[in-house]
Specification:
globular; 115 residues; mainly alpha; Non-ribosomal Peptide Synthetase Peptidyl Carrier Protein, Chain A
Protein backbone atom coordinates (compact mmCIF):
# COMPACT_ATOMS: atom_id res chain seq x y z
CA UNK A 1 0.00 0.00 0.00
CA UNK A 2 1.37 3.44 -0.90
CA UNK A 3 0.68 4.90 2.51
CA UNK A 4 2.27 2.19 4.63
CA UNK A 5 5.23 2.96 6.84
CA UNK A 6 8.45 2.52 4.89
CA UNK A 7 11.83 1.54 6.22
CA UNK A 8 15.03 3.39 5.35
CA UNK A 9 16.44 1.64 2.26
CA UNK A 10 19.88 3.23 2.65
CA UNK A 11 22.61 1.69 4.74
CA UNK A 12 23.12 3.57 8.00
CA UNK A 13 26.51 4.94 6.92
CA UNK A 14 25.00 6.63 3.84
CA UNK A 15 21.97 7.98 5.72
CA UNK A 16 24.22 9.36 8.46
CA UNK A 17 26.58 11.08 6.04
CA UNK A 18 23.78 12.96 4.25
CA UNK A 19 21.66 13.79 7.32
CA UNK A 20 23.67 16.83 8.54
CA UNK A 21 23.53 18.43 5.10
CA UNK A 22 19.77 17.86 4.77
CA UNK A 23 19.13 19.13 8.29
CA UNK A 24 21.16 22.28 7.73
CA UNK A 25 19.26 23.03 4.52
CA UNK A 26 15.85 22.48 6.15
CA UNK A 27 16.55 24.23 9.45
CA UNK A 28 15.91 27.81 8.25
CA UNK A 29 12.48 26.81 6.97
CA UNK A 30 11.51 25.26 10.28
CA UNK A 31 12.83 28.22 12.26
CA UNK A 32 10.68 30.66 10.28
CA UNK A 33 7.46 29.12 11.60
CA UNK A 34 5.75 29.65 14.91
CA UNK A 35 6.43 26.94 17.47
CA UNK A 36 2.76 27.00 18.47
CA UNK A 37 1.69 26.06 14.93
CA UNK A 38 4.33 23.32 14.73
CA UNK A 39 3.34 22.03 18.18
CA UNK A 40 -0.35 22.00 17.24
CA UNK A 41 0.36 20.12 14.01
CA UNK A 42 2.59 17.60 15.80
CA UNK A 43 -0.12 17.01 18.41
CA UNK A 44 -2.77 16.61 15.71
CA UNK A 45 -0.70 14.13 13.71
CA UNK A 46 0.03 12.22 16.91
CA UNK A 47 -3.67 12.08 17.76
CA UNK A 48 -4.78 10.83 14.35
CA UNK A 49 -1.83 8.51 13.67
CA UNK A 50 -2.74 4.88 13.74
CA UNK A 51 0.58 4.10 15.43
CA UNK A 52 -0.04 6.68 18.17
CA UNK A 53 3.31 8.37 17.66
CA UNK A 54 4.24 10.75 20.51
CA UNK A 55 4.42 14.38 19.30
CA UNK A 56 8.08 14.66 20.34
CA UNK A 57 8.98 11.74 18.04
CA UNK A 58 7.50 13.38 14.92
CA UNK A 59 10.07 14.85 12.54
CA UNK A 60 8.57 18.05 11.10
CA UNK A 61 10.64 17.63 7.90
CA UNK A 62 9.58 14.02 7.20
CA UNK A 63 7.06 13.31 4.43
CA UNK A 64 3.75 12.76 6.21
CA UNK A 65 2.60 9.86 4.05
CA UNK A 66 5.94 8.20 3.30
CA UNK A 67 6.93 8.25 6.98
CA UNK A 68 3.68 6.56 7.97
CA UNK A 69 2.53 9.43 10.19
CA UNK A 70 -0.75 9.61 8.25
CA UNK A 71 -2.47 7.63 5.53
CA UNK A 72 -4.96 8.82 2.92
CA UNK A 73 -7.90 8.77 5.33
CA UNK A 74 -6.17 10.35 8.30
CA UNK A 75 -4.64 13.04 6.07
CA UNK A 76 -8.19 14.12 5.20
CA UNK A 77 -8.93 14.32 8.93
CA UNK A 78 -5.78 16.41 9.46
CA UNK A 79 -6.79 18.84 6.70
CA UNK A 80 -10.28 19.18 8.20
CA UNK A 81 -8.72 19.89 11.63
CA UNK A 82 -6.48 22.57 10.05
CA UNK A 83 -9.48 24.23 8.42
CA UNK A 84 -11.47 24.22 11.69
CA UNK A 85 -8.56 25.50 13.80
CA UNK A 86 -7.01 28.08 11.47
CA UNK A 87 -9.69 28.77 8.86
CA UNK A 88 -7.23 27.72 6.14
CA UNK A 89 -8.33 25.26 3.46
CA UNK A 90 -5.56 23.07 2.06
CA UNK A 91 -6.27 20.82 -0.89
CA UNK A 92 -5.72 17.10 -0.49
CA UNK A 93 -3.25 16.98 -3.38
CA UNK A 94 -1.06 19.61 -1.69
CA UNK A 95 -0.33 17.27 1.22
CA UNK A 96 1.22 14.83 -1.26
CA UNK A 97 3.19 17.50 -3.09
CA UNK A 98 4.46 20.86 -1.93
CA UNK A 99 2.99 20.68 1.59
CA UNK A 100 4.05 17.12 2.34
CA UNK A 101 5.56 17.73 5.78
CA UNK A 102 4.61 19.52 8.99
CA UNK A 103 7.13 22.33 8.51
CA UNK A 104 5.72 23.18 5.07
CA UNK A 105 2.16 22.95 6.36
CA UNK A 106 2.97 25.30 9.25
CA UNK A 107 4.52 27.88 6.91
CA UNK A 108 1.51 27.73 4.59
CA UNK A 109 -0.98 27.99 7.45
CA UNK A 110 0.83 31.00 8.92
CA UNK A 111 1.13 32.78 5.59
CA UNK A 112 -2.56 32.29 4.78
CA UNK A 113 -3.85 32.99 8.28
CA UNK A 114 -1.66 36.09 8.60
CA UNK A 115 -0.12 35.02 11.92
Amino acid sequence: MWFSKKSNPQPESIATSTAPQAASQAAPNVASTSSSTLDWLRASVSRISRDHIPPADIDVRAHLLDSGYVDSLSSTELLADIERRFGVRIEEMDIVGRLCNIAALAREIESRAGQ
